[in-house]
Design goal:
heterodimer, A: ABC transporter involved in vitamin B12 uptake, BtuC, two-stranded antiparallel sheet, 4 strands, 4% strand, B: alpha/beta, four-stranded antiparallel sheet, 10 strands
Chain lengths: 313, 237
């Protein structure tokens, strides 16, 4: 037991790092649900493709001997294209895979099934173009293993700190955008009452596209961070990560932005505690048991409100 | 200013508006009367492009607007105070007003701030509750917020859908006083009401809608004075 307690601070920090990234990816699910009432099942693949874009950039830079760049620039250079590409992909999916369905009055299941199809399509597209074998993130060249700080008995690597800071800053940025800017207000207006938002002069389609872009860009950033953390990526990584992030979104209350962040954090922490105190094989069991428990007592999730649903067309 | 000519609107296979012809001239208050399911709200939604007419034309200042998307119609200077208020419950009073000014994002911040203050002067209760969430307001306060929100767009034409619904009688008088004040300040108003006597007392002209057709059209004074119309269409004994 003493051993277990000794590694507890360490595990909590891992949990925090994983949790912020889950939260980042969960935001994509929750934002899209909030505005369209659909689960974008292809979001996990957007996350995976973000990881691939980051990998291309990193591999390219390494091959060019960093091109004379200071290493501090590498992470932003990986994140930016990953986020732009993922964001554009999200917008494209909405435009070509979902919008034609919901505009023609398909039931809510229509776009959902289209999303599952898009997910399978994207997995296979990546497998065919990039190969089925794993790609290795050369994380240790960017964040050498020796870079660590000791805090309260935990030895924390520079990478973990960077993950927490980057994911935390992005969530904070999104929070400010949604709460303080006209675009954020129009996103909330469309989520609450689409027809009334249009009557206020909001271009609803543009807001839906912006929401897909933001959520997908954050998912792409999450892919890069997870790639750096686990150092291996493959075309199937979006499936389990997507499921986890979706769980986090539901745990926090799907449709609620702060809920996704909170759900991600809790899920990350609970998983790392499960790994600490019991057989690591049970970590998913613990995560989903927690989800079930929360949904039994709070069916709308931790921060989800029960809002009488107005028909969204 | 606004002209509907033989407008027909369907919801799926159901023909809700069968033939609506009406006109609102600049500076007027016109009221559209009718019972439940007569097509009043559908007329409003058709004007705003929320539903598209299947026949007929809607013109604003002589230009056709039917077929345009809602957001471009409202940008031409039309605002709505919707039925049942439909304020944004999860936004603060101030944010609701900011949404009302959504079409004026290029206006100087000072102008918008002045307009917000003007709404707070018109409805002091809103000023006291500016940071409160819309959903926590009382029904009367929500109605004030819905009116304030619509005014934030500085509309030339204000559409009001049942502004008296669900309000205490004292508040109904207050709301109609405000409607008159808004009109005197230069806004043309089309108001849909079931409460015919109150609406006609402020309007210059009225239309009666029944089963998707305009059945009567006259000056407000005549409509109020004509016994058989009051009995037949305005729900009075």
């Amino acid at each position: 037991m003493a051993d277990v307690l000794a590694i507890l601070p360490q595990q909590l920090v891992f949990g925090l790092a994983l949790g912020t990234v889950y939260g980042l990816v969960a935001l994509g699910y929750t934002m899209v649900y909030g505005i369209l009432f659909m689960i974008n099942f292809a979001h996990g693949e957007i996350f995976m493709i973000g990881a691939y874009v980051g990998w291309w950039v990193l591999a390219g830079l390494l091959q060019a001997q960093m091109g004379g760049l200071h290493p501090a620039w590498v992470l932003p250079l990986m994140l930016l294209p990953a986020m732009l590409f993922a964001g554009a992909l999200g917008v494209g999916l909405e435009r070509f895979a979902y919008r034609p369905l919901y505009l023609r009055g398909a039931t809510r299941l229509g776009p959902l099934i289209s999303a599952i199809g898009a997910s399978i399509f994207l997995q296979n597209a990546v497998m065919l173009t990039q190969g089925a074998r794993m790609k290795v993130y050369m994380t240790s060249l960017l964040f050498p293993r020796g870079w660590r700080v000791q805090i309260a008995g935990a030895s924390i690597s520079a990478l973990v700190i960077v993950m927490i800071v980057v994911a935390g800053l992005m969530m904070w940025g999104l929070h400010l955008l949604v709460q303080r800017t006209p675009l954020g207000r129009s996103i909330r207006a469309v989520a609450e009452d689409r027809e009334m938002a249009a009557i206020m002069g909001v271009n609803v389609r543009r807001v839906v596209a912006a929401t897909f872009f933001l959520g997908s860009a954050l998912g792409g950033a999450g892919g890069v961070l997870v790639g750096l953390y686990y150092t291996q990526i493959d075309f199937f990584m979006g499936y389990s990560a997507g499921l986890k992030a979706f769980t986090a979104a539901v745990l926090g209350g799907i449709g609620n932005i702060r809920g996704a962040m909170l759900g991600g954090l809790i899920l990350g922490l609970v998983e790392s505690l499960a790994v600490t105190f019991m057989n690591p094989a049970y970590k998913d069991v613990v995560a989903f048991a927690l989800l079930i428990l929360v949904l039994v007592f709070r069916p709308t999730g931790l921060l989800g409100e029960h809002v009488a649903e107005r028909e969204k067309v | 200013m606004l002209k509907l000519t033989d407008v027909v609107t369907h919801y799926g296979p159901m023909r809700v508006l069968k033939s609506v012809t009406l006109e609102v001239r600049t500076g007027e208050i016109v009221c559209l009367l009718g019972g439940n399911a007569s097509g009043k709200s559908t007329t409003m939604k058709t004007i705003l492009g929320v539903v598209r007419p299947t026949a007929g034309r809607v013109e604003l200042d002589g230009e056709r607007i039917d077929g345009l998307p809602t957001e471009s119609i409202v940008r031409r200077g039309i605002s709505l105070v919707p039925e049942a208020r439909r304020i944004f419950a999860r936004m603060t009073v101030w944010e609701n007003l900011a949404m009302g000014a959504f079409t004026r994002q290029k206006a100087p911040a000072g102008d918008l701030a002045d307009d917000v203050e003007r709404v707070y002067t018109l409805f002091p209760r809103l000023g006291e509750r500016r940071t409160q969430l819309g959903g926590t307001l009382s029904g009367g306060e929500q109605q004030m917020l819905a009116i304030g929100r619509a005014l934030m767009a500085r509309p030339r034409l204000l559409l009001m859908d049942e502004p008296s619904m669900g309000l205490a009688p004292v508040l109904v008088d207050h709301v109609f006083d405000i409607i008159q004040a808004i009109n005197r300040a230069g806004t043309t108003i089309l108001v849909v009401e079931q409460n015919a006597p109150v609406a006609l007392s402020v309007a210059s002209r009225g239309y009666v809608l029944q089963n998707g057709r305009i059945v009567v059209h006259d000056t407000a004074r005549t409509l109020l004075a004509t016994d058989h119309i009051r009995r037949a269409y305005l729900g009075e004994d």
